[in-house]
Amino acid sequence: xxxxxxxxxxxxxxxxxxxxxxxxxxxxxxxxxxxxxxxxxxxxxxxxxxxxxxxxxxxxxxxxxxxxxxxxxxxxxxxxxxxxxxxxxxxxxxxxxxxxxxxxxxxxxxxxxxxxxxxxxxxxxxxxxxxxxxxxxxxxxxxxxxxxxxxxxxxxxxxxxxxxxxxxxxxxxxxxxxxxxxxxxxxxxxxxxxxxxxxxxxxxxxxxxxxxxxxxxxxxxxxxxxxxxxxxxxxxxxxxxxxxxxxxxxxxxxxxxxxxxxxxxxxxxxxxxxxxxxxxxxxxxxxxxxxxxxxxxxxxxxxxxxxxxxxxxxxxxxxxxxxxxxxxxxxxxxxxxxxxxxxxxxxxxxxxxxxxxxxxxxxxxxxxxxxxxxxxxxxxxxxxxxxxxxxxxxxxxxxxxxxxxxxxxxxxxxxxxxxxxxxxxxxxxxxxxxxxxxxxxxxxxxxxxxxxxxxxxxxxxxxxxxxxxxxxxxxxxxxxxxxxxxxxxxxxxxxxxxxxxxxxxxxxxxxxxxxxxxxxxxxxxxxxxxxxxxxxxxxxxxxxxxxxxxxxx
Amino acid sequence: xxxxxxxxxxxxxxxxxxxxxxxxxxxxxxxxxxxxxxxxxxxxxxxxxxxxxxxxxxxxxxxxxxxxxxxxxxxxxxxxxxxxxxxxxxxxxxxxxxxxxxxxxxxxxxxxxxxxxxxxxxxxxxxxxxxxxxxxxxxxxxxxxxxxxxxxxxxxxxxxxxxxxxxxxxxxxxxxxxxxxxxxxxxxx
Lengths: 553, 189
Prior knowledge:
The structure holds two protein chains of two kinds.
Chain A: E1 6-11, H1 18-26, E2 31-34, H2 49-53, E3 67-71, E4 78-80, H3 92-95, H4 110-114, H5 129-144, H6 172-183, E5 188-189, H7 228-234, E6 238-241, E7 245-248, E8 259-263, E9 269-279, H8 283-292, E10 314-326, H9 334-337, E11 345-347, E12 352-357, E13 360-362, E14 364-370, H10 375-383, H11 393-404, E15 406-415, E16 424-432, E17 438-444, H12 448-467, E18 472-487, E19 513-515, H13 530-549
Parallel strand pairs in A: 1-2, 1-9, 2-6, 3-17, 9-19
Antiparallel strand pairs in A: 3-4, 5-11, 7-8, 8-9, 10-15, 10-18, 11-14, 12-13, 14-15, 16-17
Helix pairs in contact in A: 1-7, 1-13, 5-13, 10-11
Chain B: H1 43-56, H2 70-77, H3 84-104, H4 115-126, H5 132-148, H6 160-165
Helix pairs in contact in B: 1-3, 2-5
């Protein structure tokens, strides 16, 4: 089968891929997006927790397409689903909660700010916040982000307001504000990739409460599936080819990539020729694709002459806590029975500490939300597991007391996850997927300051919860890392010896190969990275368009 | 998880078992009671399963596991090929529970034992080793899926599980028209 060549082939349709396709298609370039997952319509998404959250709707099964994971090189890697984001048209932006914070200027110069951090490969970015600011602004407008400008003293510098007003807040928000005023903290409305009013032909949020881990059945969530992709397709220049998984990126004798080999829905091999290739299938899978693309010119994987593809993997640090507020004894407290699902409060008072506390200066964001309303998840959380699980009459009573008879307010933290030499992706030497292709092996060697930053934020989060006077509160996790919030495997930089990509996220070693997902990030930042991935991908797309216009591709 | 947004919070990505595709078993009619023939289990194992689930989530002023159709849910769900490993586990362990009960309680199978006697056995599995605690976790998880999952799978009969924990599915959305092609049209700036 012969396939017509295109200008740009993009591997992946999520936060890293769709903005590039959008920019290129709008400029008249011919674009094909290859997406390994299926395409769904809005009405295909429902509130069936079993289907959406408990089987393998968004991510592949551990038997078909595992990753493997080990703590340190001495450990044996075990099969896991960890590190998969979302195999579906729209990628992780379909099931995201849509917390769309920007990075802060310090995130672009962490090495200069912290100085040498022993045992970490922390590096400055080769661009500044100011370089990315216009693209943050554009993404917020193109996809639809709601929020409040000038809401707190630690806000990143912005040049314009959010395109949409904030979402309706649950009454807990005001309680948090009152408590934080006494503590001297500065909570602010969480920016969300959810449209709060009619926006560019899309209807606003209906407050169904099931955002994270679900697709939005009315398209109010600003996934690429609901925002950028339909617009790119409407240009007539962009085709999304679903259920097509890229398997190799070949190069010609001159060392230029020629297109993408992929496996179709029927399991057949096909080749999409293109003048330029953009890889954006998540930091872990993008590294895997490059490492699988071996040739005489690149025997250790495409663009991997310096051995850095897969290295410097970072995850967002994660800690969590919760507080229980029983309805009994609080009769008349309207905020407690408010049915608005979003508490909408974040806090960045400790984003960069003036002086180190226990070695930690850079932390991140504390985010407050009601507990996820998933009913099975709620019941499991109350029941617990193993030897300490509650069951029988005790469980029935606990369900009445803690689910029906109470509200649970949670915090979730996004902390700096420092890169280390021992945290990386490579190809598993033993484990293959169902097609016989080596899978990505994730090796993690955590930096002690990661965990310290998590614990610092967890203590502050719990302090706020306790200031609201709950019946009980607890830190439920203080040393986690969110393996969906990944980056860094193809670090960008000015020096070809110490980075994979150049400032434009073009491979130093391959003039027509770009990587536009979170692989480029030298550091994780202290916010959920989705907005930053999209803003950078739009910047990469603009750069590609400029190259085509100048005849330099 | 992707709180990141995307990330934040991809909740419960694990669930039970390992599937290639979303499981979509045919819903069982909840009122098929007198003539109900299990698809996955023998009649004896289904009776044992029902007894275990009922002890994990017993009827009190709120409905119990059997009221909520939990055993029927599990029987139907485990007919799905993707849950073969879970099915094998239950098919293997449920007869063991009966034998253990008979040994402890003078020949009575698990369903024939008293609730207090049944609880002793469940407790020993909860605190046991060599995979017995795993069985306990799996059957507790399946019970909660059946009690609080979407009623279309045969459990959570009449949405009474939702009511028990105050969950209101689709409340704001029921009023809305379906929107299929809305935002795929023109995109004004």
